[in-house]
Backbone:
């Protein structure tokens, strides 16, 4: 979207605040939460409603690590980096549990399922990576449990899976409700939320920054861009650093019995599904079968991908055959060159910082990555591998 001269109502109202966070997905909601928790005055601003972007379209699996299995990340980036990244996501999940979920009191409200998540293999090649990952993960202190083909066959009454690796602490959640909950917690701590305010220009002055949006002008000490996939549309500096990639999903009518005991992530993360306590099954993926068409900002569904997901699901979980699909949707993820999120400043604008590039794992990374962004903004704390300079060094 763009803002025309006619739509520009930024001159009608001026808001003065310490921080403006652009983007009310899980990243921006979390940044607003951490800022407000530290007593900062913060305005959380989005072009649409809260969770308008990927955070409202996600599968909501709270997984450890990246889309690539641990074994591959060890091969590509070394054992230390792999351990750091997995520890980061484990800490992120622990922080969400401590600050947002509580000891189970919000589970029903958030549609949270805590039975664990399983990386399941659909090929011998994937099985060998999963087994190797399992050994490395356990050696590095991340509790995981091997599941054999017979266990998966007994669970699903089908032959799709050759084996798996269960993360007992893995969870699945309604991602829109989770995002709205984090926004609610930020508001309880004093954050103000401005929906339907599209940012169209950033100005930097000697004593501060100004975010011009379609419905108001925000004067602040600092702007934090949490626009993930949309970041290149907000500022050209983010072009080539984060790439928009569509993910498609569907949901079924509620089933009377549980047919999926865990959140499942399979085919190297290209397919994923889980079942709500209320019976509905949500599933997504298949983008690898038309990777080029799935690039870009469109969030329309396409028949080929939707049929692919549904056929796969009926094979993997035969109890779904004959069931009705009630919802189909798509969302836009922000991929980085190496599968990890990154944080940086706009060139010569240290008052404008960004967090982007969650690469399909924003619920695994977002809450803690936003805290790191806030720690950097407030204290100048080091951000280690999260630094955007990493992408230039790797040529990613
Ligand atoms: C189908 C699908 C399945 C997924 N499954 C999982 C999963 O199981 N687990 C997982 O961890 N992750 C998953 N993801 C990825 C996850 O949803 C994202 O990584 C995460 O939501 C990113 O959050 P974010 O807040 O950074 O970005 P977003 O949620 O995309 O938020 C960005 C916000 O910026 C706003 N914005 C953009 N431009 C402007 C502007 N100019 N002015 C004001 N506001 C603006 C947008 O409206 C949007 O609300 C999935 C994504 C999709 C699409």
Residues:
């Amino acid at each position: 979207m763009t803002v025309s001269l006619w739509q520009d109502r930024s001159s009608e109202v001026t808001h003065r605040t310490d921080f403006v966070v652009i983007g009310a997905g899980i990243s921006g909601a979390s940044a607003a939460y951490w800022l407000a928790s530290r007593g900062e005055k913060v305005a959380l601003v989005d072009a649409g409603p809260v969770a308008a972007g990927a955070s409202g379209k996600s599968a909501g699996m709270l997984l450890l690590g990246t889309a690539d299995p641990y074994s591959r990340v060890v091969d590509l980036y070394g054992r230390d980096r792999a351990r750091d990244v997995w520890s980061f996501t484990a800490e992120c999940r622990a922080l969400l549990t401590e600050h947002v979920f509580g000891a189970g009191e919000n589970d029903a409200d958030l549609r949270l399922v805590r039975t664990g998540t399983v990386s399941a293999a659909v090929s011998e090649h994937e099985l060998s990576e999963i087994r190797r990952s399992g050994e490395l993960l356990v050696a590095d202190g991340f509790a995981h449990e091997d599941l054999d083909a017979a266990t998966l066959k007994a669970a699903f009454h089908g032959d799709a899976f050759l084996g798996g690796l269960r993360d007992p602490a893995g969870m699945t959640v309604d991602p829109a409700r989770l995002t709205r909950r984090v926004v609610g917690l930020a508001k309880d701590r004093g954050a103000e939320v401005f929906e339907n305010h599209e940012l169209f220009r950033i100005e930097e002055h000697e004593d501060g920054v100004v975010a011009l949006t379609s419905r108001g002008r925000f004067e602040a000490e600092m702007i934090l861009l949490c626009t993930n996939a949309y970041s290149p549309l907000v500022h050209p500096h983010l072009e080539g650093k984060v790439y928009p990639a569509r993910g498609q999903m569907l949901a079924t009518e509620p089933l009377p019995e549980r047919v999926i005991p865990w959140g499942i992530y399979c085919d190297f993360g290209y397919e994923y599904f889980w079942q709500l306590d209320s019976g509905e099954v949500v599933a997504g993926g298949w983008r690898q079968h038309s990777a080029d068409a799935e690039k870009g900002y469109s969030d329309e569904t396409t028949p080929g991908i939707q049929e692919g997901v549904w056929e796969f699901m009926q094979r993997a979980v035969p109890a779904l055959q004959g069931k009705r699909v009630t919802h189909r949707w798509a969302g836009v993820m922000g991929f980085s060159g190496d599968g990890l999120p990154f944080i940086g400043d706009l060139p010569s604008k240290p008052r404008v910082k960004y967090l982007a590039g969650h690469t399909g794992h924003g619920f695994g990374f977002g809450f803690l990555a936003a805290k790191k962004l806030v720690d950097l903004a407030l204290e100048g704390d080091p951000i280690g591998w999260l630094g955007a300079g990493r992408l230039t060094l790797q040529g990613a």
